[in-house]
Every structure is written in C-alpha cells, then in structure tokens.
Design a protein that fits this description.
alpha+beta; Transposase Inhibitor Protein From Tn5, Chain A, domain 1; Transferase Inhibitor Protein From Tn5, Chain A, domain2; 2 domains; 13-stranded mixed β-sheet; 15 helices; 13 strands
Length: 461
Amino acid sequence: MKTVAYPEKRLLAREEQIVNVFANTQHSSIHKTFKDYNDQKAVYRFLRNDKVSEEYLIHTIQQQTKRQSEGKRVLAICDTSSVNTQLNKGRISDYSGLGRIGNNQNGIETLGFKLHPILIENELDGSFYGFSSISMYCRPLNSWARPKSRRSEDKNRPIEEKDSYRWLGPSIETRDKTLNKADHITFVMDREGDIIQVLDQLPNERCDVVIRSNINRKIITPEGKETRLKEFLRTKKINGTANIKIRGTKGKAKKIKVSVKYSKVKILGPNTGYKLSEGLSYYVVEVKEYNKKKKPIHWVILTTKKVSSLLQALQVISIYKRRWKIEVFFKKLKSDGYDLEKTALETGKGIRKLTLILMKASLRQEQLKSAREGTTDLQTADVFSDLEINCLRKLNGQMEGKTTKQKNPYPEDNLAWASWIIARLAGWTEFYTKARPPGNKTFKEGLDKFDTVMMSYHLFN
C-alpha cells in the first residue's frame, strides 16, 4: 500500500470527534448534525484543510479492514454508484474533484462523481469488516462519449487507460496488498465486472471470482465443441430445481422456484484487443425463475469455484445474492440515510472528503447489524473503547429483565452482546414479540441514545 502522510494530532482528534458524531446521527447536514456553532466551523475548516487528504481517510478505513480480515475467508463485493451533486450545483464554487457522470432526461450533463468501493465481509458468518478499497473518479465537464465510428479503437487501448480499470486495479491491490493476510478472497461482481482482463488476471490460488455474465463469450464445451455461452446454455439440460430467497418489493424477502444448470467450460479470448495465450477454465451456473410474469429472474454466473453438484451451484448462487449488501449500503449513504446528495457543501473536495467520513462513520452501525444474529467473530473491543465497554456493561444490567429469556444471550467479548444492548436502547423487544431483527433505523436510534449516555458517563469517569 502507498505511504500515506498522517495529519497532525489535533486533526486526528478532530477527525475522531467528527466521525463519532456522524455515526450517531445519520445525516450529511453539518448544521443539523452539529448543534454548536463553533463545532460547525471546526468541521468546515477540517474539510477544507489540505493536510487531511482523501488518501489518508481511505488509508485509515483500509487499515481497520486489513486487521479484521487477517486469517479469514472473506467476500470482496465490488460495485459502482453515482454521487449526483447537480441539485446544489448553484452553491458550488469550486468544482475540483467533480465532473460529468452522465446526462439527465433533458440531455443536460450531470455534475458529481463515481464511487467504487470494495466491501469486505466474512464469507462464513457475514461479519462486516469494512472497505479494502475506495475509488472516486469522474470525467471532465463538457466531455462526451466517443462516436460509434471510433469506439472500436478502444479495444486496443490498455485497460489502465479506461474507466473499466476500476474493476481490476483496486481488486488486485486488495488481493496482493490490503488483504494479503486474509486466508481466502472471493470477489463478487455484477455484469459490469465481466471483463476479460478481470477473468484472466484476478483469480489465483487464494482468490476466486463470482461474476454475473454480461457478454455472450466464445467458449469450448466439455465435449470440445466451440460455441457461444448463450447457445450452450439454451441446449443444455436442467441439472436440478430449487427454492431460493431473494429480495422482493420494499426489501422484503420472497421465495421463488428456479431451475439450475451448471457446467465447466473454457472461455476463449475476443477476436480483437486483449489476447489470451490459452482458454480460461471456468464454471458457469444458470439460474432461471419459473415465472411467466414480467422480468423473471435469470442469472448466468461465471465462477472459478468448483461446481460439480447442485449443492455447490446453490452455494455460488448464495454468494452472488450477497452482492445486494453493497446496494443497501449505497442506499443508506444516499436516499435512505445520510442523504449525501443533498449536502450544501460548496467545494468538490469537501463533498468527496465528507463522503469518506460518512463511510467511516457507518462502519460501527454496519458491524452491529452484522453481529445481531450472534454468529459474528467480531469482538466488542474491535468496535468500542474500554470506557464505552464499561458503560455498555452498566447499561446491560438495566436492559435485562429478571427471566432467562429477558437476559442478554451473548458473551460480553462478542460484538453480538453490544448489538443486543444498542438495539434494546432503541426499544427493540425481541423477547416480547416475534419482532424482525433490528435494522438500520433501530441501530441509528440506539447509537444516538448511547452517545447521549456517553456524554454524561465521561463527566464521572
């Protein structure tokens, strides 16, 4: 990883304070989050300070993720989201770090930047560890797509010169540097990640990929016949059926019946551009919903994980479904949480730094949520300070009832113990009703109340 200059101690202390406040309020507005005028000024000065770089803010998130991932089997979920600042374009006086991210319905270019993080979680129990990479980029304003007549030239350009490099470069850095002490990494990508360089260069002995297919690639079948992927799957017999859970409308889970096909294939390189010395050995898994309604589920997944049985195919499908977690995170960062795109900051650099601070602030809440089932390997000390743990210990006594059913069921050193207390602070009553597991709003409210308690606790300790 790159050598990153840390800011001076007073700025480090200020950063910790800002992150902690944002973690418990879940709003990007500085005026709504910080009630004191002097605190508001301090946050604005912090975001303007050139000594606090994007590289430093990203580096601190990476370091935490690196520590918690050591020796673990992890999923690295990659995706891209647009941060649209067009709404407050009139307020912005400095466009540094902002650019064109597309056009709106009226054909007017949209101001903002693209955010491409790699979210890391435990493959076995879903414990949330953080982000191994965060890329932010945009195209210059008034830049337009290349004419179709010249797009063929792009096939011969190195991938390092293309926007699509965000799927390869940060992933290789994650594999070889940030998470070089992780036991095993499985990269999970949607259709944008179906890039021949990714398929060729990313997998190795401690790294697999699970990528949804986007291109009807040339392949060699197990029988040695050269064909296209779609044609091969169209004529292949179904290997089995299953009922799987997916997210339905309004985030609710629903069960659907699907047919499953799987096979080993050899992927051939394209006719132009990137050349392969030999075919790539991959497994393909097709999932198709038994549904005559509009837009039935139909996934074609490429993976380096061995798939020689229906059970192994379902395991690959289960891993791909977990990609949705990064979509939920983007929603929390924007419309369903911090409302980042409505920030009133006046500089592009400030908006980008605020994005990183909000991502760091969200880590505690995400980790508490991933620990709520009691299966996490995260420790309480990974997330809370010694003083906070002492406070949680006293709160636990107040939150527990007299019966065994009303006691905190988790050991104190496991983060699930703290997750139970924070949820109870927000009024979650699992033992009285068949309540749903606590979610974002519950933990947000619980952390907000815990922050208030900690202010008083600091005064007497």
